Amino acid sequence: MERKLTKKELLLNFLRKMFFLTLGPCIAAFALEVFLVPNNIIDGGIVGISIILSYLTKINLGLLIFLINIPFFLLAFNKIGKKFVIQTFYAIGILSLAVNFLTIHHLPVTHDLLLATVFGGIALGTGVGLVLKNEGSLDGTEIMSLVLSKKFGFSVGEWIMAFNIFIYGASGLVFGWNKAMYAVLTYFIAFKVIDIVLEGLNSSKSIRVISDKSYEIGQELLKSLNIGVTYLKGVGAYSGAEKTIVFCVVSRLEMAKMKEIIKNIDPHAFISVVDVHEAYGGRTKGSIDKI
Fold first, then answer.
1. What's the helix, strand, coil split of the chain in %, to 5?
2. How far apart are CA 35 and CA 253, in angstroms?
């Protein structure tokens, strides 16, 4: 039976989520106002549209970010869920306030386009990643893309790419194609940093080993690496012979040692390695899994 969280645990989880839904937009605002906007380098999505419109009309950037996102809030309310919409509404509200605060204090640190692109992309990706990891969003085009993908086909990523091609094209016309190319580079850096925030730097590897000495390999892995191991049953399609498969999850630092152990026991063992970004539950390091 699933254990219910206590009121204290629920409160701590809520406070933790709200902390990161506040911190993430502040970091994103820092990236925008300190690195990107002063150098006319845009972000993708609604923020990018807002930067272009703010430059052309001189309307407050924070206000534009908030107002342009409102139709997407309404669209998502019945399509995605109230909790996500409320948390997104809060995150974008904080982003707008933080952008306005930093605009008033005017804190650009560099006008070197490459430095602004790299550090702006890193900071922006960190902020957006923290919001996404805590069930929120800072961009209405993601919501629109999700709705359009269900209605008209194509993936969410393809719709986002189509929107951004249009936005970066507009950026080239307004700020020049040199700045537009820096903006694309910023987006790429931010995208990669978002992945790191969501998945972590310590990505592990899922290992499957097929060998005639599977039990011997499994026991040696338990002894030498102190990791949990599971034995799975399989049948060879060609030979029809039953096989025992060794399954385990190891860190990247343990990969070389693991391969050495396997090859020393059975040089002809088949090893399959798959990236694992997150692993939950099950046995922890130092335990023995008997299935």
1. 65, 10, 25
2. 35
Helix (H, G, I), strand (E, B) or coil at 204: strand
Nearest in space to 214 (alpha carbons), one of 285, 271, 274, 257: 271
Q: What angle (nearest 5°) sits at the alpha carbon of residue 179, between those of residues 175 and 181?
A: 130
H-type alpha helices, 176-283: 177-199, 214-225, 255-265
Asked if residue 203 has pLDDT above 60, the reply is: yes
- Predicted confidence band of residue 18 (pLDDT cuts 50, 70, 90): very high
Q: Which long-range contacts (CB under 8 A, 24 or more apart) does 52-60 make?
A: 52/167, 52/170, 52/171, 52/174, 55/174, 55/175, 56/174, 60/100, 60/103
Could you tell me the sign of the dihedral formed by the alpha carbons of 98, 100, 105, 107, in that order? positive
Q: In what order do the strands lie in the sheet with 242-251?
A: 229-235, 242-251, 204-210, 270-276
Average pLDDT over residues 76-92: 80
pLDDT tens, residue by residue, 97-153: 999 988 877 777 888 999 999 999 999 999 998 998 888 888 877 777 777 777 777
In 3D, which of 47, 61, 67 has the Cα closest to residue 106? 61
Which residue has tokens 């990505």?
A: 203
User: Residue 1 is encoded by which pair of tokens?
Assistant: 């039976």
Whole-angstrom distance, CA of residue 116 vs CA of residue 41: 8
Residues 52 and 36 sit within 8 Å (Cβ to Cβ): no
> Residue 124 class from Cβ within 10 Å (0-12 exposed, 13-18 middle, 19+ buried)?
buried
Type of residue at 272: S
Q: Which of 173, 202, 59, 193 is closest to 131 using CA atoms? A: 193
